[in-house]
Write a structure and sequence with these properties.
Layout lengths: L8 H32 L17 H17 L5 H19 L11 H28 L9 H28 L12 H20 L7
Helix pairs in contact: 1-2, 1-6, 2-3, 3-4, 4-5, 4-6, 5-6
C-alpha cells in the first residue's frame, strides 16, 4: 500500500526549499559580486561588499538582499522570538540594500554621509541577528536530538561564532590608520564574505541540504 503524504507535506517541503534558497544566495553572493565585476567591468576587488553598490553589480547586490529580506519577513519559526528576530533581520537587510555605503572617492554630501551611517548600522545589526539565529534559535533541540541534529548544532555554533568574530575584526579594521598596509589586502571584503558564507552554510544546514535526517 502506498504511503500517503500528510496534507501539509508539500508546504513543509516548500519551506525547507526556501531555507535552502536563502542559504544559496548567501553562499554565492560574495563570489557573484567579485567575479561579475571582474568579467563585466574589470578591475580588482572592492574594499567592501557594499562598495559593489557603486559598480555595475548594484542590481545583484540589491536584488539578493531584497530576496533575503522577503524570505525573512515571511519566516515563521517555532517560537515568537524566532518570528521577531526574522522581522528585525528583514528590516536590516532592506536598510543595507537601500541606504548605500558612502562612496570611496569624490565629494561626499551630508545625505550620503547619513546614508552611510545607516548602512553600517543596518549591516552590523543584520549580521548580529543572523548570528543570533545560528547560536541560539537554530540550536534549540528536543530532549533526545537525533545524531544528525547534534552535528547540525555544531555547524550552527561554528557559523554563528564565525559571524561574530568577523564583525569584531571588521570593527578593529576600521580603527586602523587609513594608510595601513593591510588595507591593500581588502580585509573588510574578505571578512564580510566570510560572514556571508557562514550565514549561507547555516541556513543551508537548517534547510537540511547538509546533514539531513
Amino acid at each position: 500500500m502506498t504511503k500517503q503524504s500528510k496534507p501539509d507535506d508539500s508546504l513543509v517541503i516548500s519551506y525547507m526549499g526556501l531555507r535552502k534558497a536563502v542559504g544559496f544566495i548567501g553562499l554565492g553572493l560574495p563570489f557573484g559580486l567579485a567575479l561579475g565585476k571582474l568579467v563585466f567591468d574589470g578591475g580588482g576587488l572592492q574594499s567592501t561588499m557594499s562598495d559593489y553598490y557603486h559598480s555595475n553589480m548594484r542590481n545583484l547586490f540589491v536584488g539578493s538582499l531584497c530576496a533575503i529580506s522577503v524570505f525573512l519577513m515571511s519566516y515563521w519559526g517555532y517560537d515568537r522570538i524566532d518570528n521577531i528576530a526574522a522581522k528585525i533581520a528583514s528590516a536590516f537587510a532592506v536598510g543595507v540594500a537601500f541606504f548605500p555605503t558612502t562612496p570611496e572617492t569624490g565629494i561626499i554630501s551630508p545625505q550620503e554621509r547619513v546614508g552611510g551611517i545607516i548602512h553600517i548600522t543596518c549591516a552590523a545589526g543584520f549580521f548580529l541577528t543572523l548570528a543570533f539565529f545560528s547560536l541560539f534559535l537554530f540550536r534549540k533541540t528536543a530532549p533526545k536530538p537525533t545524531p544528525q541534529k547534534r552535528k547540525r548544532n555544531v555547524v550552527y555554533l561554528v557559523c554563528g561564532l564565525t559571524m561574530v568574530a568577523s564583525i569584531a575584526l571588521i570593527g578593529i579594521t576600521y580603527l586602523l590608520p587609513s594608510d595601513a598596509s593591510i588595507r591593500s589586502l581588502k580585509p573588510v571584503f574578505w571578512l564580510e564574505s566570510l560572514a556571508v558564507v557562514a550565514f549561507g552554510v547555516s541556513w543551508l544546514t537548517k534547510g537540511e541540504a547538509i546533514l539531513e535526517d
